[in-house]
Amino acid sequence: MPESHIASFGRFRRSHEFWLLIVILGLCASLGFANAQFLTMQNLFDLLTSYAFVGILALGLLVVLIAGGIDISFTATASVAQYITLSIANAYGANWIGVFAIAIGIGGALGALNAIFIQKFRIPSIIVSVATLNIFYGLLIFFTGGKYIYSLPDWFAAGIFWFEFEWGKDSSYGVNLQILALALAFLVTWLLLNRTNIGRQIYALGGNADAAQRLGFHIFGLNILVYCYMGVMAGIASLIQAQLAQSVAPTVLVGKELDVVAAVVIGGASLMGGTGTVLGTFLGLTLLAVLQNGIILLGISSYWSPFFVGLVILISVSATAWSQRERRTRGARR
Amino acid sequence: MATFLEMSGISKRFGGVHALRNIDLTLEVGEVHCLVGENGSGKSTLIKIISGVEAAEPGGRIAISGKEYPKLNPVYSTHCGIQVIYQDLSLFPNLTVAENIAMAHHLGGLHSVNWAAMRAIAKATMAKIGVEFDPDTKVSELSIAGRQLIAICRALAADAKLLIMDEPTASLTRHEVNALIELVSELKRAGICVVFVSHRLDEVLEIAERVTVLRDGAKVGTFAADTIDGRKLSHLMTGKSFEYQVQAPELAAGPVVLEVEGLGREGEYEDVSLRLRAGEVVGLTGLLGSGRTELALSLFGMKPPDRGTIVLDGRPIALRTNAEAIHRGIAYVSEDRLTLGLILNQSVTANVTLTVLERLASAFGLIAARARQTHVARWVAELGIKVSNPANAVKTLSGGNQQRVVLAKWMATNPRVLILDSPTVGVDISAKDGIYEIIRRLAHDGVAVLMISDEIPEVLYHSHRVLVMREGRLTTDVAAAATSEDALRLAVNA
Questions:
Q1: Does A299 touch chain B (CB under 8 A)?
Q2: Comparing B194 with B76, which gets the higher pLDDT?
Q3: Touching check for A111 and chain B: CB below 8 Å?
Q4: Is B110 within 8 Å of A197 when comparing Cβ atoms?
Q5: Could you say which of A35, A209, B232, B482 has the lowest number of CB atoms within 10 Å?
Q6: Distance separating alpha carbons of residues A252 and A243, to the nearest angstrom
Q7: What is the CA radius of gyration of chain A?
Q8: Is the CA virtual torsion A274, A279, A281, A283 positive or negative?
Q9: What is the complex's ipTM, to 2 decimals?
C-alpha cells in the first residue's frame, strides 16, 4: 500500500465515520442473529425504499449545516411542492420530467426565500425557518383544507422498476423511483461537496465566515445556493414520497423534521458549521433505519423508537465532543 | 534598494473623525518595517488603505512598484502582491493544510477541484520556508504557531511581495517568536517586504530595520531601528515619557500572608516554595509552559497540587476549588480577560458586582438596587474607570478600562492575595501606567500581589521581588533591586 493510503486509512480509523460503521455492523450482526428476516434482500430493499425520503432531505440539510446555517422548514416546503405539483399534473397532465421540474422549481424558490431573509435582514436561520415552516404550512392547509389527493396520474402511480433481477424463489427486485432518487442525491451531493470548488467554498464558509468574506467569496450567492439546494431536495423527496404513499397528504410530512436532523447529526455534522460528510450522513441514515427497523423486528413497542433515536443522538454527539477534547489536550501537550 | 510602495498625503476621515492625517510612507523591497502606535493611532486604517479595503481621501498618492494606483481596491492590491495576515489569521480550521495554502484555487466560478495540484502547491510553498506539515492534516489540529506558518504559506502561495502581519507574536511563546524572526529574515532575503504591526516594543526593535510611529492618526516619523530604544519609542508613541526605576524591597512589608512549601503537580511543576508578604508585589516570569500559569491556578484552587503545603495566615489550607480560594481571600485575574474575565455583552455594573452578589443581597435574597449602585460608583471612582454610564456594555470600553473592570471585580472581594496573570497584555502604554499605579496602591493597602508577566521590564520595574520559573521549577527568587533585565533574561531563557 502506498504511504499516503496508509496515512488516510489511519485518519479514517480515528474518524467519527469509522466508529459509526463499527456500531452499524455490530447492530446488523446482532439483529441478523435475533431475527432471520433482518438480513434479507427483501428487508434491504424495503429499508432503502422507505428511508429514501428522509435520506434525500438529510443530504439537503447536510449542505445547509456545513455552510453554518440550519433549515427546518423543508417538510413544509416538501408538502407545498407535492400538493401543487401533483394538482397540476392531475389538472393539465404531465410526464416525469415535467413533475420533477415543477417540484424542483417550487422547492428552489421557497429555499431562496429563506436565504433572502437570512442574508438580507441578518436574521438567524433557525428563526427564519421556524417562521417559514409555519407560513408555508399554514397557507397550504388554508387553501387545501387539509384534503388528501388520492387519484394520481396512472404513469405516476405505476412508478418505475429498472434492472429487475431474480433472487431466491419467486421474488424479483429492481431499482424503483425511491432508490434511484436516493442514489442520485447521494452522488450529486458527494460531487458537489468534494469535487467542486463551490462545495469547498461551502465548507470554508461554515468554518470561518469572516475569513471567507475577506478572501472575496460571494457569500450571498453561496447562501442562495445552499438553501435552494435544500429546497430542491425537498421538492424531489416530496414526489418520491407521494409515489410511495400513492397519495398526497398535506398534513403528514410536517413533523418528520426530527428524523432528518437525527440522521445528519448522528452522521457527525455539527450545528456550528464546517463539519459533516456525505459518508457520515449515509451512515447516520443507515443507523437510524436499522435501529427503527430492528425495534419493530424484535417486537418491541414502536413507542420506544423515539427513545432509542434520542439515546443514539446523545451518545453520538457526546462521543464526538469527547474525542475532540482528547485530541485537543494531546495537541496542547505536543 | 528599490522602492516597493510609496504613499504620500494619505488622509482618511470616518464621520468627522480624522483617522489618518497626511501620512507619507515608503516601503523598500526586502525591508522589515515595523508599524507601531497605540490603539486608535491609525495603524489598522493605514493597513486597510494599503490593502485597498478602504479608499484614501482625494489628494493622496499611492504607487506600487512605480505604478500609480489612484483607486486601489483589494483585487489590485492582491494582484500587486500585497498580502495581509490578520491577527486571527483568517484560516479555515475545518479544511486541510493544502486547501488553506492553495485557497486561491477554490475561488472563481464553478469548476472541479484538482486535489493533486493543491497538494503540490502546498508542498512547494512549505518547502520554500522550510516547514513540513502533512497537506491532508486539518488546520484545527495544528498549534497556534503552526497555523501562523500556514497563514504565511498562503500569502506566499498568492505570490506575496509585501507581507503585512498584524500582531503576529501576540499568542506565541518566546521560542516560537524566535523561529518567526528567523523566518522573517529568510523572507527578506527572498526580496519580500515584511511589515510588522506590534505592541511589543522589544520585539519591534529586535526584528525591524525601520520603525514608523503613528500617534493620533499622524505620523511621528520613520526611524532606523538601531537609533532608538524602547524608552524613546514609547515616548514617541504616547508623547509622554515613562521613567521606571527598580523598586526598593518593600521595607514596610507586613507579615507573610501566603506560604508555599514543596508544592508540585504531576507533569506541570515541582518543588515550588515561596512566600508572599502583605504589602509586597512579587513578579513571576518564565516562558510559556514553564509552569507559572499552572502554579497560579493551583494557588487559586483550580489545579489542586499533588504534593506540598499551602499556608494562609499561618494555617495550612487545602484548595480544591476556586470557590474555596475566593472564600479565603485569594483572587485571580486571568490572562485572557476577554474570554475568561469579563462578560463582554453585559454592563459594567453587572461585571463589577459579579463576585459580591451575596453581599449585595437583601434579606429576601434579592439584589438591593441602591447597594449595588453605591458599590459600582465606588469602584468606578476608585479605579478611574472611564465610562459615561455604568449600564454600558463592557465591550464598548477600551482595553485599559476593561482591565480596570476586571480588577474592580476582584478587589471588591477584599482579597488578601491577588494573583494577576499578564495584567497589561493588549493594553496601551499610557493605560499600562494606570494599571501599575493601581497595583502599587493595592500593595500599599496591604494586599499581597503576585504578578505574572512575559515582559521582563514589567516584572523588574513594577515588583519588589522577582521570581523566575523554568521547566516547572522555581529557579530564581531575588529582590528587584539586586538584579537586572539582562540577568533575568538569562535566567528565563538559559
A1: no
A2: B194
A3: no
A4: yes
A5: B482
A6: 14
A7: 21
A8: negative
A9: 0.87
- Joined together, the cell numbers standing for residue A172 give 424479483
Instruction: Report the share of chain B in percent with pLDDT over 90.
Output: 30
Question: Which of B320-334, B339-353, B408-422 shows the lowest per-residue confidence on average (mean pLDDT)?
Answer: B339-353
Of A194, A207, A331, the CB nearest to B92: A207
Q: Give the one of A4, A11, A216 whose C-beta lies nearest to B107's C-beta.
A: A216
CA distance B128 to chain A (A): 22
Fold of the A3-327 domain:
ABC transporter involved in vitamin B12 uptake, BtuC (1.10.3470)
Q: What is the 3-state secondary structure (H, E, C) of chain B?
A: CCEEEEEEEEEEEECCEEEEEEEEEEEECCCEEEEECCCCCCHHHHHHHHCCCCCCCCCCEEEECCEECCCCCHHHHHHCCEEEECCCCCCCCCCEHHHHHCHHHHCCCCCECCHHHHHHHHHHHHHHCCCCCCCCCEHHHCCHHHHHHHHHHHHHHCCCCEEEEECCCCCCCHHHHHHHHHHHHHHHHCCCEEEEECCCHHHHHHHCCEEEEEECCEEEEEEEHHHCCHHHHHHHHHCCCCCCCCCCCCCCCCCEEEEEEEEEECCCEEEEEEEEECCCEEEEECCCCCCHHHHHHHHCCCCCCCEEEEEECCEEECCCCHHHHHHCCEEEECCCHHHHHCCCCCEHHHHHHHHHHHHHECCCCCECHHHHHHHHHHHHHHCCCCCCCCCCEHHHCCHHHHHHHHHHHHHCCCCCEEEEECCCCCCCHHHHHHHHHHHHHHHHCCCEEEEECCCHHHHHHHCCEEEEEECCEEEEEEEHHHCCHHHHHHHHHC
Sequence ranges of the domains in chain A = 3-327
| Sign of the Cα pseudo-torsion (A131, A136, A140, A143, in order) | positive
Examine the pLDDT at B151 and tell me if it is beyond 60.
yes
The model's confidence at residue B272, banded by pLDDT at 50, 70 and 90, is very high
Nearest chain A residue to B140 by CA: give it.
A328
The C-alpha of A147 sits at a distance from chain B's nearest C-alpha, in angstroms, of: 43
Residues 6+ apart with CB under 8 A from B32: B184, B185, B188, B193, B194, B196, B207, B208, B209, B210
Say whether A214 and B90 touch across the interface (CB within 8 A). yes
Residues forming beta bridges with residue B12, ordered by sequence position: B20
Q: Residue B250 — very low, low, confident or very high, per pLDDT cuts 50/70/90? A: low
User: Block means of pLDDT (10 residues each) for chain A, length 334 residues?
Assistant: 66 84 93 90 93 97 97 96 96 93 97 95 93 96 93 90 81 90 98 96 94 87 97 97 94 91 93 93 96 90 88 86 69 42
Domains of chain B in start order, with CATH, are 3-238 (3.40.50.300), 244-329+415-494 (3.40.50.300), 343-413 (no CATH)
B95 half-sphere exposure, CB direction, 13 A CA radius: 33
Gap between the Cα atoms of A198 and A195, Å rounded: 9
The 3-class secondary structure across A70-132, one letter per residue, is CCCCHHHHHHHHHHHHHHHHHHHCCCHHHHHHHHHHHHHHHHHHHHHHHHHCCCCHHHHHHHH
Contact A26, A229 (CB under 8 A): no
The pLDDT, as a whole number, for residue A112 is: 97
Residue B44 with chain A: CB contacts under 8 Å? none
Inter-residue contact A226 to A63 (CB < 8 Å): yes
Q: Which of A14, A200, A324 to mutate to test the interface with B (most CBs of B within 10 A)?
A: A200
